[in-house]
Amino acid sequence: MKKFTLISCTILLIVSCGTCQNNKNSKDAEKAAQFAETITQDELKEALFTYASDEFEGRKTGEPGQKKAIEFLKNHYVSLGISSPIANGDYFQKIPASYFTNDIKESENVVAYIKGTEKPDEIVIISAHLDHIGISKNGDINNGADDDGSGTVAILEIAEAFKIAADKGYGPKRSILFLHVTGEEIGLFGSRYYTEVNPIFPLANTVADLNIDMIGRVDRKHENQRNYLYLIGSDKLSQELHDISEAVNNQYFNMEFDYTYNDENDPNRFYYRSDHYNFAKNNIPVIFYFNGTHADYHRPSDTPDKIQYDLLETRARLVFHTAWELANRDERIKVDKK
């Protein structure tokens, strides 16, 4: 009789613990969804119509329009009360002109972060490039609304969602760095400077880089199936990262993940062409989020009125949920490939 009672109690305890864990996971998911909903297409649109306006002159690296862009980003973080990891009020990681080629002037990465509550030394990076290609020889301004205004404003909204969560007592366990890099269009200079010259946080402590480069449009292949996104690199270094990404999508979005450009034999070689690659070179797991190219790529016609803001909202929420999971899981993801 005692043996039966002990076994019964043990089974009851196991079931109860499992139920508690399921309830905790369910509550965490509910909270994540609640904060993700603060990412809205209206706010994305408002920010992008400024960031990709003629006033910013195509945001060419080192030029006056790019300086206006970094001030816009800084002011946004200041207004949200999100601090800089460099020093109080200093959001600019300065890159000297000598680091660039072809007479490029001094430029800046823009950085902001939310400190982790339990594992502050472990860092999840969300990145996008802040620059574009500037003004054409005939005087046309290349606004770069999709490339990469869409990724830039997505980070601003994701950062706001994390800040709202933190203010309500749900700060991320790990620190999150919001990294806007310069010089991508001329050779991934900003991300290379961060990883090779002056990483603000040790690369060994960097859990993953979620890189957003063009997520506001639809390419020709997906004109009849808008709810998609190309993912590149998710399984290159960590199968666990890939599995988490898939699970997040299945739980919240059910969009089509297209891995065409993740193929090692892809002739476009997009895996090597955006800022995540400088992290991947250093054995840091990455995901590159991308909508594919379109007729307005690197043309003056890449304007904010052509962005599909409902898609931009959904895709930004996807990145938020993925970052939330990476920042709050008990163990950091494992690197199991080179």
Structural commentary:
There is one protein chain. The chain has one domain (30-328): Zn peptidases (Aminopeptidase, 3-Layer(aba) Sandwich). It has helices at 2-36, 41-51, 64-80, 145-167, 189-197, 239-252, 276-280, 309-328; strands at 92-95, 107-114, 119-129, 174-181, 206-212, 228-232, 256-258, 286-290. Helix 2 (41-51) crosses helix 4 and helix 6 (239-252) packs across helix 8 (309-328). It has an eight-stranded mixed beta sheet, with helices on both faces. Strand 3 (119-129), helix 4 (145-167) and strand 4 (174-181) form a beta-alpha-beta unit. It is built from eight helices and eight strands, in the order αααβββαβαββαβαβα. Helix content is 40%, strand content 15%. It has 338 residues and is an alpha/beta fold. It comes from Mariniflexile jejuense. InterPro entries: EF_Hand_1_Ca_BS (IPR018247), M28_fam (IPR045175), Peptidase_M28 (IPR007484). This is M28 family metallopeptidase.
Q: What's this model, at a glance?
A:
The protein is of the alpha/beta class and 338 residues long. The protein contains eight helices and eight strands. It has one domain (30-328): Zn peptidases (Aminopeptidase, 3-Layer(aba) Sandwich), CATH 3.40.630.
Using brief descriptors, characterize the structure shown.
single chain; 338 residues; Aminopeptidase; 8 helices; 40% helix; globular; alpha/beta
Q: How large is the share of residues in beta strands? A: 15-25%
Beginning-to-end CA distance, first to last residue: 56 Å
Mean pLDDT: 94
CATH topology: Aminopeptidase
Low-confidence stretches: 1-21
